Batch of 2 targets.
Target 1
Amino acid sequence: MTAIRRRSRLPGVSVTVEIATESDRTLLDRLMQLYLYDFSEFDGRELDDEGRYEYIWLDAYWTDDDRRAYLIRSDGRPVGFALVRLTDPVEMAEFFVMRPFRSHGIGRRAAQQILALHVGDWRISEVKGNDAAVGFWRVVIPVAFSEHMLADGTREQRFRVALP
């Protein structure tokens, strides 16, 4: 029997974060569909009549001054995204790394790069039941943080990112 070799889909060491531009909108929308599919486990979201998950805020990331969309790449390939709201405190609205690229340090490195871009107070929240996200952020947040359980079961971390 001959062994079949498959090309590894696992990334190398390169992790970059870049601001998503208008030309990245379709790519981000496709990644958003994967994210919302994964997230439907927690929020019960259903497909619309066109077979898509709706995310009503996506267009605002190209029109509102207080929102930033970032693409996460590994070895030049898109592997995820982050959506940040520049409020007080700054809020990680959404953060996603595709399943094949998780547990390789990519998400951690990307998240830390994004946090470093926005000095000041931060808030990161995870919905009830998303224990993997809670564990991820507890490791990723680079400073001491306070953690709170909200009435709806959402867990929230608050912390301050200072200048290096």
Target 2
Amino acid sequence: MTSIAGGHGEPNPNSSWLSARGFWLAYLLGLLSVHLIFLSVPFVSIPWAWTATNLLHNAAHLYFLHVIKGAPWLSTENDPSRRWTHWEQIDDGVQMTTTRKFLTAVPIVL
């Protein structure tokens, strides 16, 4: 287990905040805020606002969780987290955790 340079903090703060208390509420409120911004644009119908919210969310989800690789806070070059995507770093790669289930269910429900 590698820690941040200096020896303080989480082993990998790149993904530990996803399991933090209040993350789900903040995530859903952010998603609702984006949807309300789309609804506030004149001449935008409700179905178009939902479609735009879904497309923006899924594009951001794809890019930030599945395209970007690495963990900028880790100090060693041989740490496997440097080669993993953000999705692979969540809960140290353990599958079917509550965080991963939540992040899988939101795009499906949206």
